[in-house]
Design goal:
Length: 465
């Protein structure tokens, strides 16, 4: 195992130099330490912003020399000095401020509710004018303004001049409409930073975003940044999913240009096509496959989820353990919740049919009713609603075997609108029939922890046992 410290591991990751054992070490640190996650976010944020500031501006030879000098130093010369990255970032502040005209203002980035502590001079807002307003939201959300103020009680109709919105749970979603009519929506545990200084800049830190973009000004496309790609959007409908090492783009209408950051390769993705960056092969746009009507989680692959992932052992299957979620509207209520995003490597949408059912398998330490919900999208990728499978009748206690294992079945015909979106029932879908499955979650509420672990969730189409 590598002897590198956290800062060195992150720096080598950002340069694409980690070997397999170092990648495993960094993943372990990020999984188990909130401090490590905050350090990673801060370094990745500055590394990306600095590189983009230099790349997108007409830098002077002196600026280019500064960047080259910073990256030319080897691990042997500087890696042992923990202050190196901070010194480089200090120089970066000087360069970015000098080049700030026309650049996106520097936004605070929260991690677990903690704002960045950068000097306020690097976060100056160019304008206090509203660029967008909130047109829909649900679930646990945190909005952080460009000066670092944290607001949990965001409301529909609120005008925003920019900032960062973070969905804190699988049932979270947020819709934003820009002044030109373009709309973007994040769902689940996602984080989006947005600004518009004559050109829209968005940064999807993680999670899923869908958008319906109005035609943009000539030479001023909407730019969406992820950790692995930059999307250039003139006007179209699409959705994009981003995680630590990959970006997946599905285009419904129009065309989106995607540039992979690792090698600079580009591809134009037309309607009904998709592309993913998590390959070493040529970047190719592929026709979206036909929809499928069955799906099964693969937790051994550690997919995007909400909860504590636990790898398989000789005695137990891989699982996602529920973690506490305090409801912002009811701070005295704590749910123990686990969630999964829906992902297929071939990009095919998973469509829920009438007569389908969901089977949830897992473990419990205490007797509890396991409540289950789903999030669905329209075919164009827009948010369609959330539904619960246990509201018609009181959820019975799950039957456990002597090892605490349980299996629950939820028939689609019994699903009803989730209370979290009931106030928008006239705008959203009345049922999930025929819609695209985007996420699932399960939780218990017994006044304390139940030990809930999800080992598998399966969508079974009509007519199958």
């Amino acid at each position: 195992m590598s002897d590198l410290n956290l800062e060195e591991l992150i720096d080598r990751h950002l340069r694409g130099e980690l070997n397999d054992s170092e990648k495993e070490r960094l993943t372990e640190l990020l999984d188990t330490s909130a401090t490590a996650r905050q350090e990673f976010v801060e370094q990745a944020h500055w590394d990306t912003e600095f590189a983009e500031a230099l790349r997108e501006s007409r830098q002077s030879p002196r600026d280019a020399d500064l960047l080259a000098a910073g990256r030319a130093k080897t691990d042997g010369q500087w890696a042992s000095k923990p202050t190196f990255l901070r010194l480089l970032l200090g120089a970066a502040v000087v360069v970015i401020v000098a080049l700030s005209a026309g650049l996106i203002y520097q936004l605070g980035y929260p991690e677990a509710g903690i704002p960045e502590t950068n000097n306020i001079a690097t976060q100056r807002r160019v304008s206090d004018e509203s660029i967008a307003r909130i047109t829909g939201l649900s679930g646990s959300l945190i909005w952080t303004g460009d000066r670092g103020q944290i607001v949990r009680d965001v409301k529909i109709g609120t005008e925003l001049a920019g900032g960062t919105i973070e969905g804190m749970a699988p049932d979270s979603w947020f819709e934003l409409q820009f002044n030109d009519g373009s709309t973007v929506m994040i769902s689940g545990t996602s984080m989006l930073t947005f600004a518009d200084l004559g050109q829209k800049h968005l940064r999807l830190r993680e999670g899923r975003l869908s958008a319906n973009v109005a035609p943009q000004r000539v030479g001023k496309p909407m730019l969406i940044h992820t950790r692995s790609a930059v999307l250039e959007v003139l006007g179209t409908q699409f959705d994009v999913e981003a995680n630590l090492d990959s970006t997946m783009l599905n285009v419904s209408e129009g065309k989106v240009r995607l540039r992979r950051l690792s090698d600079g390769s580009e591809v134009d993705v037309p309607a009904k096509h998709h592309v993913t960056t998590d390959t070493d092969d040529d970047l190719l746009s592929v026709l979206l496959p036909d929809s499928v009507h069955e799906w099964k989680s693969q937790l051994h692959l550690k997919p995007g989820n909400y909860g504590k992932w636990q790898p398989a052992t000789e005695q137990q299957l891989a699982s996602v353990k529920a973690i506490p979620l305090i409801l912002p509207t009811a701070p005295k209520i704590t749910l123990y919740l686990a969630g999964l995003s829906i992902h297929r490597s071939d990009g095919s949408p998973v469509v829920v049919l009438p007569g389908s059912k969901f089977v949830v398998r897992g473990r419990l330490r205490s007797e509890a009713g396991v409540h289950f919900g789903i999030r669905v999208l329209y075919p164009n990728g827009e948010f369609a609603g959330m539904f619960r499978g246990d509201l018609h009748e009181k959820q019975p206690l799950s039957a456990m075997d002597r090892n605490g294992r349980f299996e629950e079945v939820y028939e689609l015909q019994h699903f009803t609108i989730d209370p979290a979106v009931y106030d928008r029932r006239d705008e959203l879908a009345a049922s999930p029939d025929g819609l695209i499955l985007d996420g699932v979650w399960a939780f218990t509420y017994i006044g304390g922890p139940s030990g809930l672990e999800i080992t598998e969730v399966e969508l079974v189409p009509p007519g199958e046992n």
